[in-house]
Amino acid sequence: MSKFRSMDAFMQLNLHQTHHEIADFEGIFKYLTATFQQGNHEGLHVFPELFLTGYPLQDLPLKKTFIDDYQAFLEDLSVWSERQLKSKGPLALLFGGLRYEFDTLGWPSYIENVMYILEPGKKLRSLYTKQLLPNYDIYEEKKYFTAGHQSEVFEFCGKKFGLLICEDIWFSHLHDMDPVEQLKSHEQKCDAVIAINASPYHLGKVETRINRALEISQFLEAPFIYVNRVGAEDEILFDGHSFVVDGNSVVKMGAGFKSQVVNLDLPVYQSPEKQNVRPYHSSTNSWSTIFSTRLSSDTLTLQPMGEAGCREVLDALLLGIRDYSEKNGLKKFSIALSGGMDSALVVTILKLLQKTYPIEIEAIFLPGFFSSSISYDLSYDLCRNLGIKLTTMPIKFIHSTIRSAYKDNFGNELKGIADENIQSRLRGALIYMRSNDMNSAVLNTSNKSELSVGYSTIYGDSVGALSVLGDLFKLEVFELAHYINKHHGNLIPADIISRPPSAELREDQEDSQSLPPYDRLDPILEALLSSRFTPQDLIKRGHKQDEVLKVYQLLSKSEYKRKQFCPIIKVKPKSFGFGHRVPISKKML
Amino acid sequence: MSKFRSMDAFMQLNLHQTHHEIADFEGIFKYLTATFQQGNHEGLHVFPELFLTGYPLQDLPLKKTFIDDYQAFLEDLSVWSERQLKSKGPLALLFGGLRYEFDTLGWPSYIENVMYILEPGKKLRSLYTKQLLPNYDIYEEKKYFTAGHQSEVFEFCGKKFGLLICEDIWFSHLHDMDPVEQLKSHEQKCDAVIAINASPYHLGKVETRINRALEISQFLEAPFIYVNRVGAEDEILFDGHSFVVDGNSVVKMGAGFKSQVVNLDLPVYQSPEKQNVRPYHSSTNSWSTIFSTRLSSDTLTLQPMGEAGCREVLDALLLGIRDYSEKNGLKKFSIALSGGMDSALVVTILKLLQKTYPIEIEAIFLPGFFSSSISYDLSYDLCRNLGIKLTTMPIKFIHSTIRSAYKDNFGNELKGIADENIQSRLRGALIYMRSNDMNSAVLNTSNKSELSVGYSTIYGDSVGALSVLGDLFKLEVFELAHYINKHHGNLIPADIISRPPSAELREDQEDSQSLPPYDRLDPILEALLSSRFTPQDLIKRGHKQDEVLKVYQLLSKSEYKRKQFCPIIKVKPKSFGFGHRVPISKKML
């Protein structure tokens, strides 16, 4: 320690906003040994929650294969740090990981979500166990982990750091203790607070985190260091945005949606001016914030995402597709274009992804008897704008063949919903046929409005490996399309955005024949999906009774379609997918 | 009370092993008011856990619509019992339900899983709160409910009843207290113990429950009354089998897989003979029992289900299909027959269901270029045996049309996996076309072996509203077919059972070209899915290295197919579906 420069002058903080694939123990070991090989690092290096394993792990920590590999990895880390980790000055690595306790038979008796420390010449050791385990919506940490019961202040180079892990900062009625309050009453006053996180992204979350961090910084009178994971895991995104706040100011803000090492000197706490003092607990989790909506207070309109929101969501979707592709070896994409808004937006987003990530994209137009010529023209214009090849494979003749075969074998004409849906399923089968032949992936193009009311054909337009727009209502799909046209050149033909939405499965079909207009449908859906409104509440607030009841029924009855749907990139607080759990069989609710 | 006959002589117990649809408040209210309308009931009536709401409810208890309706229902019950419930003798109704506490804004501050009591002239009141909340595998009660912390002994007609709710009897390392031990040390000695349950079925569970009940009865020196829910909720089945044990004997055993009111007089505790005394805790939950396997100890063979097991599983599947159909309004079924084992077994099970439940069944054979004539002959023989009409709709010409269209539009021949899978997807689309036209439902015919290794075509043979065989390995499918042939007439042609399994998607295809033989595949899968074995463990025990590693890889890489699969009727301790949570994107584990 004596070699180190005066601690009061500065201490270097390094926030490793990193990403590795789940259970990529080898990759993480290589990253650490490569990063610290030169011995020219010093200071405090902080990595995200569960850096050593990835998150969310779901059942993996219960599997013997995972446990054996992970325990060997911990041992490797310990040996490396004890024997090989060198530094010219004081050095400590703080990162999240799992800590197992085993029973006499060798089976886990419990698993903790902890903060580990590595220091040169020392073995790996656990410093702190996460106390608040989130267990709502997409979270289910109580299923796997055992909570800690003790706050921890860690000393490094004469500075005292209060330690917290993710949910620990979000005290609410869901928990029975407050780890931040524990630090306040800890015998050692903190010079800074370190929170390591694997905090999933949703629109607006960055602001929520910073507001809470400012509160805590003021409450504990210490700078607050927030390190977040980055990267996408199937449907769940981690957005990075690591930061440091102090008193009433944001000292440092990390990048969103990409890996980065953020370096800074540890700030010294500055009290805010009186008018800027925040009460503690002004923005914590509670029943109402967890189920917050993006509705104007009368629930009759959906708030637009805005320019900043669109930019953020676009970045999120790009990361979501990219990481899913990379982890699952997807290098080519085959997209079925309909001439409509949703598929146009998906292929445009893929094109934007292609600017920074090498993928091949092909567009396929599968016109049927009811596809209008304008659908082809618009798909053609779109592909020309994007510089993507468009192949047309008409389904009319195949459809005719099926109609004849049906009549021949079952004795009656194919008509109505059966004749409509076979077109959609034929397209689903054909786009997957192409994807099998090209070894490409199919992205789903459904939006959240359709998914909510079941306005899609199962195994038809609902196919795909990953849903890009499944967490965006139709109004938001339009908003994002406008945003992209404004900021990335007019890629999407204006007529695609302005034409009335239609599935084109029968003569002159339009969405509005089956559903309320989207500017009325979407707010009803947002309200009902939040769980905070009953149909009666919405009718009282001025929504049309027949529309509300119809939407409510469609939502309730279409659960079976969502159960077989692909992962949806999550960009909202409440999404379909892992955090949405509703029985198929039930009295309508 | 004075009117009632001597309590020592007897007390009538009525175990209502009932089923109502989830959130069917109106139906439950009608059932109660109708059952007790005459006023000629007396004694103690015990209903299952969460009788008032159904189970599992998943997110429903968090929805304002559910909360409002449920609170109104509780109020109705209270008013009814206070004003209208009459009885000629002492009467008490014990049942499970939810109890909400609300904050000042009217939002729930917590929810408890409780036992309520209704008595003539009195309001509804809560007696006991469930203390152990299961939160592993398919269970996630800690996500929704708050645990109680106090045991309860309830007195009725001079008898003292210890109260327990489901998981309360299954103390293990997963919990930090033992409600049974609490009753042992309670100041009031119990004359009997009542446990109300919503205990999901799996093969072998009845025996496990009885063993545990006998232990507890001896430990507390009191008869043990076990009331279970019956009925199917999507994938999860409740099997009934309510019972009363006393000392070392089973006093009463309720029916399996159907509603029933079991009546008996409360037994007086009989100590078992010394040689029959069981140690307390001989059969509780633990890591190893939760992840138990049906393997012989060397892991090289899968234990057969046996005659009793087959009968039980068949009953379970019949109930699973029936309740799903009833709740979702399915009255007709369209089944695609391939001439193979799985589809033959599914249609045969439907036929058995038809004996007690009115449904229409139609079978469809969709032969392609590679369907052998024997596949038709066997499908024909099967349908003749079952008395079901078989319609053939060849896909050859449609397939040819698609091949031509593909070549015309994409410029190359359709071949390999693309040409194989299009046949499967075409069949998927066509059977759904038929189902749309007939307003019928399609049942999935995949087995657990296929599902495990991803040996199926997504949107092809993997389609369906409900999976009947998805929790049975291929060996078990054969075993169940033999059982049905033995006990229900030789419905399934012997050649269907004996022919080598094939998808018939290319010339001379057989499953064994892609997979190890099922008698080697299935034990490897059972071991890996239990989470208790690593591939290395299996190789050490004599499994072939190349087979184990291949199966392991297929299992790991096919998660994306299972994510889009329909609900599977659960008949095993560890099943795909709600209790199986594995990320798609991960380093192979």
From TrEMBL, chains A, B:
So what family is this one in?
Answer: In the C-terminal section; belongs to the NAD synthetase family. Belongs to the NAD synthetase family.
What is catalysed by this protein? deamido-NAD(+) + L-glutamine + ATP + H2O = L-glutamate + AMP + diphosphate + NAD(+) + H(+)
* Domain CN hydrolase positions: 11-268
Give the matching InterPro entries.
C-N_Hydrolase, C-N_Hydrolase_sf, Gln-dep_NAD_synthase, NAD/GMP_synthase, NAD_synthase, Rossmann-like_a/b/a_fold
List keywords of the entry alphabetically: ATP-binding, Ligase, NAD, Nucleotide-binding
Annotated PANTHER family: GLUTAMINE-DEPENDENT NAD(+) SYNTHETASE (PTHR23090:SF9), NH 3 /GLUTAMINE-DEPENDENT NAD + SYNTHETASE (PTHR23090)
**Which residues are involved in binding deamido-NAD(+)?**
421, 450, 561
Q: In which pathway does it act?
A: Cofactor biosynthesis; NAD(+) biosynthesis; NAD(+) from deamido-NAD(+) (L-Gln route): step 1/1
Kind of enzyme, top EC level? ligase
Q: What is this protein called?
A: Glutamine-dependent NAD(+) synthetase
What organism does the record attribute this protein to? Bacteriovorax antarcticus
Q: Which residues bind L-glutamine?
A: 136, 199, 205
SUPFAM superfamilies assigned: Adenine nucleotide alpha hydrolases-like, Carbon-nitrogen hydrolase
GO MF annotation list? NAD+ synthase activity
EC number(s) given by UniProt: 6.3.5.1
Catalytic residues, chain numbering:
49, 130, 166
Indicate which residues the UniProt annotation says bind ATP: 336-343, 445
Q: What does this protein do?
A: Catalyzes the ATP-dependent amidation of deamido-NAD to form NAD. Uses L-glutamine as a nitrogen source.
